[in-house]
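Working notes for the structural subgroup meeting. M.R. asked for a predicted model of this chain before we commit to crystallization trials. I am recording the input and output together here so anyone reviewing the notebook later can reproduce the run.

Input as submitted:
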Amino acid sequence: MKELEEKQGFLCDMDGVIYHGSKLLPGAKEFVDWLKAEKKDFMFLTNNSSKTRKELQLKLAGMGIDVEEEHFYTSALATASFLKKQMPGGSAYVIGDAGLTNAMYNVGFSMNSVDPDYVVMGETRSYNFEMLEKATQLVLKGAMLIGCNFDTTGPVDGGIAPATRALIAPVEMATGKSAYFVGKPNPLMMRHGLTTLNVDNKDAVIIGDRMDTDIVAGIESAIDTVLVLSGVTTLETMHQFSYRPKFILDGVGDVIK
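Returned structure, recorded in token form:
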């Protein structure tokens, strides 16, 4: 593990790496304590768009891990930042939870269910047919379709649940329009992490549990990759992909063993 320990920048997924649902994963607290003690630069990059930075901070605090809000970056924040650059002061019809709506408001976007510039979708439990019908009509009228992340599923207590790519698929199919997805594996989140930490890609590593988001994002950003088997990927399912992580660990705690 010497090569990993010498890295300065750590970009870490959360679901399946630090916790699963409401359960802290073994070795996660020790790993974060080590990051702080060794004065490493680190950021948690999560494709989950539903929670704000403050909510994520409080969730970890409730598990006994204390980190500042600045260490969190979500696909909702990445989506809002992207859209601000694309169309400053634009408007959107948003299907998502507080993490996404707050991020959109904070970059100056207004909510619009009549003639928005964008239809933006993230994870939400308040997903219903009326929202899908509205989103479909708005996209057919010319609104651009944006997904916060490319995940089809996400971990929850008791198993997995549909994530953004699964939720947005009916709108794509009904309109014939393809969504643009901002979160991992889109390199936008990786670039933000490296820029914010002021770390060169050769001195950084990404740790994640998903081959189709975390690992491919690292490979395409020329960052060393660590697959942990504490989330959705197993050694068997890893072989479904035509690329490999540089390191494979049982859990994030193995980084410091």
